[in-house]
Amino acid sequence: MLQAISVFFVVLIFAGIAYLSMRRKKDFKFYALGDGTLGPLLIAASLAATYIGPGLSIGLSGQSFSVGWWFPLAACAYLFQFFLIAYLIGPKIKERYGDVSTLGDVLCGSACHPGKAYLLTTATFTFLIMVGVAGIMTLISGTLISTIFGIDRNLGGVLATILVATYTTFGGLKASVYANLWQLLITSLVVVVVFILGETSSGEISNETADGTNAASPLVVLGVVVSFILGDFLQPPFFQRLAATKTARALKKAYTWCGMYMFSWFILMGAIGVSARDKIPHDTDSDAVLFAYAEYAVGPGFSFLILITLYLIVMSGHDAIINASASTATNDIIGRIAPSLPKRSIMILMTVVVAFLGIVLAQYFDSVMHGILFLSSLWAPAVAVPLILGIYRNEETHLPAMMALIFGSTASLITTFTADEMPAIAVGVLVSAGVFLLTSLICSRQHKENLQ
Predict the structure, then answer these.
(1) What is the average per-residue pLDDT within 270-287?
(2) How far is residue 102's CA from residue 404's CA, in Å, rounded to a whole number?
(3) Phi/psi of residue 421, nearest 5 degrees
């Protein structure tokens, strides 16, 4: 009964958020960027909640449990990503492109990459990566709902996705941002209380961190660090929040506040994972560590509250992914092929499509962190590297960017399936950057020869 009542209130809260968000006139920009009333504090909270998701909560605590302190400390490389976006890339996007809605307006827009083939290739690649992430979100949501109510995991994933897709469909980004704020506040409070209770109980602080650190080779650590810096660099959910900030100054504030919160979160998740070694069975699955620790701290009688809190963590990333994926498909794929179609209707339709595809793909993932790291190893060389290298160039870079996407992602895939010890993302990034720079040099020389 308590489980049902708690979930009912969760549903009621997010239904209210969706209703309040849809009271203003809605068009595509409303769905993609809100209505222009989102300040830096709201954006910072939404960024933090979206970054955390299941990967930097369930996944990070599980990896800390498995390998020790080096993993959460490596996660602090995210702070360098925040610095790049807040002080270098983000302001340049604001200055150069002004009013944009999606990543395609920058990466594939006429001001930077006029090649239509590159536009559609990158937009489709981005959409597929985001749908993959939606599948991971559906997987972990289904697992949590299944545990709360004792129903089938697949059915749980369907129900959880319907809830998220519904308030995202009717409220757009604004609903997602306000939902993220409440999710972050509740999650932070509960996780801190759980940690305090866990550390003041009869368990002892773990002293096994050295073993976990020694288990990681330098190449493995390098791969993880690169993943945290570039693996989700300005993926559509984060780009949306960048675009929703009114000025470069507001952007810097949002990412600075987000970075301060995230540093504390990395340490907290690391402490929970490492401490859990002395408190829960050593053969606990990595994706179950956070819940097992919480159950140890509060007792089985209140474990359903922890499950609901974990579900709120997952929701914070799930709604952002669905909204951003639908925006990408609407503006960067369908909007370029058939610009006369009404974007608002297409946006709603694509929200449903993304939710459905996420449910289907959830069957093919078996671990949150492994799935995220795999998708990150494709995103970084295919999109992040061309974006960073091309944003400051005044010349057309669609051909170098296309070559970087093809060769970088291919190199990453080959390394993933043929070289276990070699970090695929690092190989892909190096190949992508080398191909981009080499192709740019060739194109520049060709352009000069044509002028002569």
Answers:
(1) 90
(2) 21
(3) -85, -20
pLDDT of residue 306: 76
Distance CA 82, CA 90 (A): 10
Tokens encoding 315: 């929701």
What the block records as the tokens of 368 is 């949150």
Q: Give dist(CA 293, CA 303) in Å, integer.
A: 10
Give dist(CA 430, CA 412) in Å, integer. 10
Residue 324: which of 428, 236, 440, 413 has the closest Cα? 236
Provide the token pair at 183: 């999710």
Indicate whether 216 pLDDT > 50: yes
**What would the two tokens of residue 415 be?**
């390394």
Instruction: Go through 409-445 and write b for each residue having 16 or more CB atoms within 10 A of its CB, e for each that does not.
Output: bbbbbebbeeeeeebbbbbbbebbbebbeebbeebee
Residue of higher predicted confidence among 166 and 283: 283
| Rounded to 5°, angle at Cα 440 from 435 and 444 | 155
Choose between 295 and 398: higher pLDDT.
295
Checking 302-308 for CB contacts under 8 A at 24+ apart, the result is 304/2, 304/3, 304/6, 304/148, 305/6, 305/190, 306/190, 306/194, 307/144, 307/147, 307/148, 308/3, 308/6, 308/7, 308/10, 308/148
Q: What is the mean pLDDT of the chain?
A: 82
Cα–Cα distances (Å) from 85 to 52, 79, 88, 347, 357, in that order, read 17, 10, 6, 27, 30
Copy the structure tokens of residue 326: 């639908």
Q: What is the 3-state secondary structure (H, E, C) of 359-412?
A: HHHHHHCCCHHHHHHHHHHHHHHHHHHHHHHHCCCCCCCHHHHHHHHHHHHHHH
- Topology, domain 2-221+243-376: Sodium/glucose cotransporter (1.20.1730)
* Of 351, 296, 297, the residue nearest 319 (C-alpha): 351
CA atoms within 13 A on the CB side of 29: 10
Query: Per residue, what are the HEC states of 310-370?
Result: HHHHHHHHHHHHHHHHHHHHHHHHHHHHCCCCCHHHHHHHHHHHHHHHHHHHHHHCCCHHH
CA-based end-to-end distance of the chain: 80
How far, in Å, CA of 93 to CA of 236, rounded? Answer: 14
Q: Mean per-residue pLDDT for 94-120?
A: 70
Tokens standing for residue 435? 């191909």
Mean pLDDT of 184-211: 74
Crossing angle of helices 116-149 and 398-418, in 10° steps, is 40
Whole-structure pTM value: 0.83
- What DSSP state is assigned to residue 55? I
Using CB atoms within 10 Å of the CB of residue 402, give its burial: 0 to 12 exposed, 13 to 18 middle, 19+ buried: buried
